[in-house]
Amino acid sequence: MPSPWLLSPVTSNISNVERVRPLLVGGASLALGITGWWALAEFGSIPAYVLPSPGEVIDRAVGLWNSGSLQLHTAQTLAEVGQGAAIGAVIGVVLAMVFFHVPWINRLLMPIIVVAQVTPKISIAPLIVLWIGLGIASKVTLVALVVFYPILINMLARLQSIPSNMRDLAKITGMGPIRRAFRIEFPFTFPAIAAGLKIGLLAGVTAAVIGEFIGATAGLGYLEKQGQDNDDIRLVMVTLILLSLIGYLLWAVVGFIEKKASRRYA
């Protein structure tokens, strides 16, 4: 049987390849997409006001950056998503714990929550803006509204699947509610919380943009609306690309934290 130290370099190389492969595939797909976009804009006989080239979009983005407009509107949208996600995550976790330990509250409130969630957010947004105003609070409320639900549902389902032997152990050792929550329930449900947060953040970016479309004085959604009103296709594309990047980066950050936490609790 070969010695373990002889196999470790091979195993390490395979592991490194597995880590790098998604980045290479993703980078190749992105490069292919941009190349196709450039070829279509340059040789497809499509007017620039319908499909500008990547270079024209970059020039527009650089102009916005130099004027400071891009930083201002990006910071506004990030603030809305960040604050709304934090509030929504706390609400989702707290409700999941309450619903799990007090079933009659679950039966009472869950139908109301489901009705609120199935109602299109673009229909709710004008009402929230009218109630709260054009400022950041209305957008934070919209983001929190869409973020808390997937966390609540995922965490509640995970709590209900805690093995009976873990519950019995908590009773035998005399764990109180707080100790049981931090020693058993939170570690066991963390992957579900992270998965719900990933979904919620992507929906939260959309909710923030919807709120900015309905009524705002700043934000990438507001900037995109300005581009639409002024027939500035380059501005619309700049904001769309930025919003896509923000959504992807938030998803990646949560995934990174999830991996680190999973190793700690493993």
UniProtKB/TrEMBL annotation:
Cellular localisation: Cell membrane
Entry keyword annotation includes Membrane: yes
Any GO BP annotation: transmembrane transport
Membrane topology: Multi-pass membrane protein
One Pfam family named in its UniProt record: BPD_transp_1
Record key words, sorted: Cell membrane, Membrane, Transmembrane, Transmembrane helix, Transport
The ABC transmembrane type-1 domain, residue ranges: 74-254
GO cellular component term of the entry, any: plasma membrane
Ranges annotated as spanning the membrane: 20-40, 81-100, 112-134, 140-157, 199-223, 235-257
PANTHER family: ABC TRANSPORTER PERMEASE PROTEIN HI_0355-RELATED (PTHR30151:SF20), ALKANE SULFONATE ABC TRANSPORTER-RELATED, MEMBRANE SUBUNIT (PTHR30151)
Membership in a protein family: Belongs to the binding-protein-dependent transport system permease family.
Official protein name in the record: ABC transporter permease
